[in-house]
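[agent] plan:
  1. take the single chain provided in the ticket
  2. run structure prediction with default settings
  3. attach structure tokens to the ticket
  4. add a short note for the reviewer (M.T.)
[agent] executing step 1
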Amino acid sequence: MKIDQKNYRAKKMMLWFAMISMSMTFAGLTSSYVVSSRRDDWINNFDLPIEFLVSAILILCSSLTIHAAKRFMLKGDNFKQLVFLWSTIFIAILFLIFQFIGFSKIIDMGYYFTGPESSITTSFIYVLVLIHMLHFIAGIITLIVVTYNSHSKVYNNQNKIGFELATIFWHFLDFLWIYLYVFVVAIN
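[agent] step 2 finished; step 3 output follows
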């Protein structure tokens, strides 16, 4: 087995371990959410602001654009690859904007993360979304690095590991947000 192939497999395995670890974190948090939803002070029928649904749609679109960017990278079409990478970054920024608008609407409804105006329900929502946003920011940094490398024409059929790992991580973040959104909507 060539050293490059071993390196590729090792990096891919490290990414999978990291994503499994992140999944376990969110599994624990969502389990706590379910258990806590039986508390007397739990707010039943809490409706998430529509901005979180818009975020879910945006993140699905970003999965499509990064997939297209990868396809064009494999075809050797650097221009289209960059167009779709920049589109993914733009959509990711829109995602973050809608997350902050959604949070501001929760605050406008009178619910805060901590303090007398907070509730266990909204505190859980804040924690779930903020932890996802931290991972999402790591994803955006990854996208920026991949886009920079794409401008330098680093990626091709022989050198694609960075691009592939970034794509896998981005799809994971997208899936994670969809899971969290559907979970919170279904439990309330």
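[agent] step 4 note for reviewer: Residues 109 and 186 are 20 Å apart (CA to CA).
[agent] ticket updated
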